[in-house]
Structures are given as C-alpha cells and as structure tokens.
Amino acid sequence: MAKKATTSYRCAECGIEVAKWVGRCPECQAWGTIEERGEGRPALARVAAGAPSAPARPIAQVDIETSRARQTGVSELDRVLGGGLVPGVVVLLAGEPGVGKSTLLLEVAYQWAAGADSAALYVTGEESAGQVRLRAERTGNVHERMFLAAESDLSAVLGHVDDVKPGLLIVDSVQTMTSPQAEGAPGGVTQVRAVAAGLVALAKERGLPVVLVGHVTKDGSVAGPRVLEHLVDVVLQFEGDRHSTLRMVRGVKNRFGAADEIGCFELRDDGIVGVPDPSGLFLNRHTEAVAGTAVTVTVEGKRPLLCEVQALVGDSALPQPRRAVSGLDSARVSMVLAVLEKRADTQFKGKDVYTATVGGMKVTEPAVDLAVALAVRSACEDVALSPRLVAIGEVGLAGEVRRVTGVGRRLAEAVRLGFTHALVPPDPGPLPDGIKTLEVSDLSRALYAVQYVPMD
C-alpha cells in the first residue's frame, strides 16, 4: 500500500500530536501551543520484529538485589524517596528560586561522597564553579570525593561522567542544559525534552542515580514540557516561604515508594538540616487560651502533623466584606462558612473573615473542616476553646461530620504532644489510650460539646 503523508500538529507544552490545528491543546489545556510539524508520519506503517536485547524471564526470577535503594545520608529526603536512591533512578527536584534546592543537593552530594565508596559529580549550568565552592565552604559541604563542573552542554556532561565515573550525578538545572542533537534555545521545549531523554538514557544504561533541578512557573508547576515529568521516575516539589526557615520536600510522583510523603527541613545560615519532629513548628504555645484558634491533626503521606487554625472575624467597612485565606483551601473555607450560617445560626453579613494556618503550613485535606468551623465560631463569639482539644472531621453541606482516614494515628500524635480531648466523627475505629474522645455526628453537636471541655 502506498504511504500517505499528512500534515501533523504538536503541542509545544505536552508533546501530544493532533490531526488539525486547534487554539487550545486537548491534553494540557494550554492556549496557543499547537505548532505545525509539516509532513507527519505515514498513514500506515509496519514494524518488523527484531532480536530482543535480553530474553524475557518469569518475574519471580528477576534479580532485585542490584536495584535496592541506597540511602543518601539525608534522612528526611530518604523518607520522601522511599528509602533512598535506586540505581538508575532519575529524580526531578523542582522549586521556586531561592528556596534552597542547590543547598539541599550540595548536602546530598557531600553525604554521598562521605558515606559511599563512589564519587558524587555536581554539574552546574547556572553558576560558576567558584560560586558553588563558596557556598559549599559556607555550609561545610566539601569532600575530596565531591567533583564539580560548570557545564551547559550535554556532551561535555557525558564526558565528565566518563572521566569521573561517579556514583551520583546532580545536574543544576535541566533548563540550562543544551543538546547538540536538538534545536532551539536553552530552556525551550525541544531542548528540555532532548536533554532529559539523554540523561534518562544515561541513568538506565549505567545504573547511575541522576538528580535534576527543575525551574517552576509562576503558578508553581514544573517549567517546560509536561513530558519531562513523564520521563523521570521521581518528581519532588521543594516548597517554602521566603520569610520562614521551614522547607518541605513533597513527593508528587514516585515509582519506588509513596507519592504523597513529605520531608521537613530548616534552612539556616550554615546549611540545611532535617526536622524529624515538625509538629511543634505548626503550633503556637499561648500562655493563655485565645479566641479564634483550634488545633487539628493532618496527615501528609504517613506522617501525622498537628496544625493550628486561626480565625479572625470583625466588622467590615467595605461594601463587599473580605474573605482572606492563608494556608487553607479557599473553596472549602467558603463552604464551611456557608454551613455555619445555614446550620449553626452564625451570621457573617457585614463582617470580614480571615483564616490562616501557623508556620506557613498548607493544608488542603477535608479533615481540617471541623477545626476551621470551631475557630471561626470561637472568633465570632470571642470565646476561647480549650488548649488541650483537637478537632478532626470533614463537614458536609448538610452540617454532618464525616469520617476521615487514620483517626487513631492522628490521635496518637496528639497524645504524644499532651492533648487530652478530641472531637472525632462517629465510628472512628480503634483509638489510643490517654485521650478522651467525643464523637459528634453534626456541626451543632460539635459546637455544643466544646463548651464542656475543661480549659486546663
């Protein structure tokens, strides 16, 4: 059959091909990214069978000892990775400028060089070798098995890998690298795709763990084509407030472990250190009870974290009262306010409502709904809740308090930090000793029950 060539179009963001030009990509929903590729693939193509590189074996006979994870020496990062770096893994670490990505990876390179029998190669395309050396001196991350190269060409990077033969390769960053086999400026879609594909092939061929630094856009997503996240094995998001020393590494994708784990770090002048017990960072220890505060327990991955929710309600001088939210899901907060008005006779007409978390923590899970409702009601009535009380539960539109997962694990963390009473949904399952639980089926019963929780 004769081959029929057709014109094809490809999205510059995600790489999907479509038969005709459209203004909006049907895959990633980006506008104006569909580009004409000229002559496309033939309408009918057949691939001849070839010789396999290795015979297929039963899965039970595949050796897994060579694919065991190796610890990096940074315990909080190992928690997110699922135990460490697997040979041949490609990790993408993305974060805003100045959040501490390079500082963290210098610590990883130092710990690897100090604790392993192989070298660590750090390739920087954004700074000179002298600038990186100054930062390493300041943070105390200098070791004889740490090698540093300032390169922006992928071919030169591969040459350094052949010379050094490292056990760990760090590339800072993938957007600054260029491949001679691809056209376009550094950071462009074509270049990023080609560089990432080349580094992934290098990692798989040699069993070399590779860590890539990635830039983010103004909305917090990874810059570059979406195919970059598909190519790598692990995607980590490095988060943190510029005005706070707390930093979090959040797993977004992980082929070798849980994809929702977090690691907590503290950024200091002399480097970055892990925080194995971060619950106290998200609580304010008041000398006396304060109206408008409530404590809940959220779960990030497998880690329960206590979080304090604060609310402030006051008269508004504006025709449209303000609803400000920080660290919480604004849509869920609006829903909780509507439920309070309809089901709990709480009026917000002509009042500004501010809600926030403590310590820069971001909480989006529904289990925080009950604490938000209690904090807002406490601020409205100017009556403080017991400082020994935690509230856990999702609030529905009918005012009911719904069950959430892991109530026992959450309360065990609350007991460890000295809390004595808890409001929980009905049928919470096995609960730990040392805490008195009050099961509430709806929001009205929860607001009634908090009146009888002792203040001390």
UniProtKB/TrEMBL annotation:
<keyword id="KW-0863">Zinc-finger</keyword>
<dbReference type="InterPro" id="IPR004504">
    <property type="entry name" value="DNA_repair_RadA"/>
</dbReference>
<dbReference type="GO" id="GO:0140664">
    <property type="term" value="F:ATP-dependent DNA damage sensor activity"/>
</dbReference>
<feature type="short sequence motif" description="RadA KNRFG motif">
    <location>
        <begin position="253"/>
        <end position="257"/>
    </location>
</feature>
<dbReference type="GO" id="GO:0003684">
    <property type="term" value="F:damaged DNA binding"/>
</dbReference>
<dbReference type="InterPro" id="IPR003593">
    <property type="entry name" value="AAA+_ATPase"/>
</dbReference>
<comment type="function">
    <text>Plays a role in repairing double-strand DNA breaks, probably involving stabilizing or processing branched DNA or blocked replication forks.</text>
</comment>
<keyword id="KW-0479">Metal-binding</keyword>
<dbReference type="Pfam" id="PF13481">
    <property type="entry name" value="AAA_25"/>
</dbReference>
<comment type="function">
    <text>DNA-dependent ATPase involved in processing of recombination intermediates, plays a role in repairing DNA breaks. Stimulates the branch migration of RecA-mediated strand transfer reactions, allowing the 3' invading strand to extend heteroduplex DNA faster. Binds ssDNA in the presence of ADP but not other nucleotides, has ATPase activity that is stimulated by ssDNA and various branched DNA structures, but inhibited by SSB. Does not have RecA's homology-searching function.</text>
</comment>
<dbReference type="GO" id="GO:0005524">
    <property type="term" value="F:ATP binding"/>
</dbReference>
<dbReference type="InterPro" id="IPR041166">
    <property type="entry name" value="Rubredoxin_2"/>
</dbReference>
<keyword id="KW-0346">Stress response</keyword>
<feature type="binding site">
    <location>
        <begin position="95"/>
        <end position="102"/>
    </location>
    <ligand>
        <name>ATP</name>
    </ligand>
</feature>
<dbReference type="Pfam" id="PF18073">
    <property type="entry name" value="Zn_ribbon_LapB"/>
</dbReference>
<keyword id="KW-0234">DNA repair</keyword>
<dbReference type="GO" id="GO:0005829">
    <property type="term" value="C:cytosol"/>
</dbReference>
<keyword id="KW-0862">Zinc</keyword>
<keyword id="KW-0238">DNA-binding</keyword>
<feature type="region of interest" description="Lon-protease-like">
    <location>
        <begin position="352"/>
        <end position="456"/>
    </location>
</feature>
<dbReference type="GO" id="GO:0000725">
    <property type="term" value="P:recombinational repair"/>
</dbReference>
<dbReference type="InterPro" id="IPR020588">
    <property type="entry name" value="RecA_ATP-bd"/>
</dbReference>
<comment type="similarity">
    <text>Belongs to the RecA family. RadA subfamily.</text>
</comment>
<keyword id="KW-0227">DNA damage</keyword>
<dbReference type="InterPro" id="IPR014721">
    <property type="entry name" value="Ribsml_uS5_D2-typ_fold_subgr"/>
</dbReference>
<dbReference type="GO" id="GO:0016787">
    <property type="term" value="F:hydrolase activity"/>
</dbReference>
<keyword id="KW-0067">ATP-binding</keyword>
<dbReference type="GO" id="GO:0008270">
    <property type="term" value="F:zinc ion binding"/>
</dbReference>
<keyword id="KW-0378">Hydrolase</keyword>
<dbReference type="InterPro" id="IPR020568">
    <property type="entry name" value="Ribosomal_Su5_D2-typ_SF"/>
</dbReference>
<protein>
    <recommendedName>
        <fullName>DNA repair protein RadA</fullName>
    </recommendedName>
</protein>
<dbReference type="InterPro" id="IPR027417">
    <property type="entry name" value="P-loop_NTPase"/>
</dbReference>
<dbReference type="Pfam" id="PF13541">
    <property type="entry name" value="ChlI"/>
</dbReference>
<keyword id="KW-0547">Nucleotide-binding</keyword>
